[in-house]
Amino acid sequence: MSPVRRCSRTACGRPAVATLTYVYADSTAVLGPLATYAEPHCYDLCAEHSERLTAPRGWEVVRLADPSAPSRPSGDDLEALANAVREAARPQDRGAGDGRGGSQTADPMEVARRGHLRVLRSPDS
After folding, report:
1. Which of 22-26, 55-59, 82-86 is the least confident region?
2. DSSP-derived 3-state class of residue 3
3. Residue 18: which of 7, 2, 9 has the closest Cα?
4. CB neighbours of residue 48 within 10 Å
């Protein structure tokens, strides 16, 4: 017997990644991570069949997140990343970076700065 559980759908031999359970009293289909043990009234599904799962009319599908699976970035995460990249690429204030106004640079060897790059004085001069 194979140690890998297979999808319960007919003619599908792919490995199972999720378990489907029907709660008839609540008219709910619960799809969650693969159960530890195969139960007689549960159905193991592969990734493709678990993504395409639909329930009968009037039923609700509850998809439980797999805590061990890596989470996909949300739209907010991607927008925050794009904003951070834009902020890093924005030119610095001329008055603050040239030593004439604003705050002084922490490193006396630093001549100029652009983004995360620095121009340093030669140690000989």
Report:
1. 82-86
2. coil
3. 7
4. 13
Residue 28 φ then ψ, to 5°:
-130, 140
- Per-residue three-class SS string for 17-66: CEEEEEEHHHCEEEEEECCCCCCCCEEEECHHHHHCCCCCCCCEEEECCC
pLDDT tens for residues 90-99?
776 655 544 4
- The Cα-based distances of 19 to 15, 68, 69, 76 in angstroms read 12, 15, 15, 30
Distance from C-alpha of 50 to C-alpha of 63, rounded to nearest angstrom: 9
CB atoms within 10 A of CB 63: 13
Q: How confident is the model at residue 116 (pLDDT cuts 50, 70, 90)?
A: confident
The mean-pLDDT minimum among 2-6, 48-52, 80-84, 116-120 falls in 116-120
C-alpha 116/C-alpha 102 separation (Å) is 19
Q: pTM (2 decimals)? A: 0.52
Q: Closest Cα partner for 47 from 62, 60, 31?
A: 31
